Amino acid sequence: MQAVANQPLIERYRRFLPVSERTPVITLKEGSTPLIRARRLEHRLEEEAGVRLEVHLKVEGANPTGSFKDRGMTMALSKAVEEGTEGVICASTGNTSASAAAYAAKAGVPCFVVIPDGNIAMGKLAQAVMHGARVLAIRGNFDRALEMVVRISERIGMTLVNSLNPYRIDGQKSAAWEIADDLGDAPDYHFIPVGNAGNITAYWAGYRIYREAGLSRSLPKMMGFQAAGAAPIVEGAPVADPKTIATAIKIGNPASWKKAVAARDESGGVIEKVTDDEILEAYRLLAALEGVFCEPASAASVAGLLKLSRARRLAAGARLACTLTGHGLKDPERAITFAGEPVRLEADFDAVLKEVARP
Ligand code: F0G
Predict the structure, then answer these.
(1) Strand order in the sheet with 270-274
(2) pTM of the predicted model, to two decimals?
(3) Engineering a disulfide at 197: which of 37, 80, 256, 353 sits with its beta carbon 3.0 to 4.6 angstroms away?
(4) Which atom of ligand 1 is nearest to the CA of 192?
(5) What is the pLDDT of residue 216?
(6) Ligand 1 pocket at CB < 6 A
(7) pLDDT in tens, 232-287
(8) Please, are residues 277 and 265 in contact by the beta-carbon 8 Å criterion?
(9) Which of 73, 78, 74, 93 is nearest to 161 (CA)?
(10) Is the separation of the CB atoms in 160 and 89 below 8 Å?
């Protein structure tokens, strides 16, 4: 393990990234996020299924804008500026737009984002507008927004910063490298939410690069999870009208579909679906048992873990990593709706004491 606190991702992993002396490093000090051992969750899983697992949480909400997108965006903006971009554009379910807006602000280039109106968490929208992006909210879903920005970037030569941009994937590989650095090897299984399918693609590429470089010995099985109402890869066909409370992964036609399937098949893993109820259960357990507040889409990885553990489909003693892709504070409304309002009282000492002293 290297001492890396406060080091930009591009510096930490420079030798694995397509950057040169001429690349201006646009950074907010992303990456080097915590990998946390989930001991209380492990106990819960063992009580339920009688199988002991070693579970590590990769807390990507600890990135500068609160999601894993910053890993890709530091690369995308650095390369865009190197190549003399006039502006960047993306479609987004929220986190990509927040990250693009922040890194574009840092770089001093214009940023345009196209989002599905009414379908992104308030925190993410707040970020995009505060960082000065031009935010265009369409009456249509993410898939439609992505089609449009791809065409616009081709027509007017603006830099596309969705994960179709290969530099995004390059930067996101770094999360796999960090996990292997922290554990001394790749885990046996890697659990991850799947939306547009860029991240599962990036992790799988990252793990392979590390093994080829002799920095890890093994490769994980890639375990991807889509929301049940937005599970095109699982169903084997695009979903015209995806539905899930996990708005970040409400995607019906993922851009990196084929690469995600390749990651699954080459690694001997799975891509399966979890229901909104299963996602919300994992969301609550992570917050209540582990002190880690992630957004609902992020909890799809742990929902998948709960499901497979209960079905006794994981080998006893296996070591696994779960990516928690974004911070819970992105979507406080969801948390309050789900977990409930506080107990409201008069400002009266005895009334408060009575509540505190309750068994
Ligand atoms: N989790 C969160 C919190 C996300 O924001 C996303 C994707 C994913 C998981 C899925 O990752 O697309 O690489 O499979 N969010 C994109 C966005 C689509 O626009 O912010 P993926």
Answers:
(1) 35-37, 54-59, 319-324, 189-193, 221-227, 270-274
(2) 0.97
(3) 256
(4) 9
(5) 98
(6) 67, 69, 92-96, 163, 193-199, 248-249, 295, 297-298, 325-326
(7) 999 999 999 999 999 999 999 999 999 999 999 999 999 999 999 999 999 999 99
(8) no
(9) 73
(10) yes
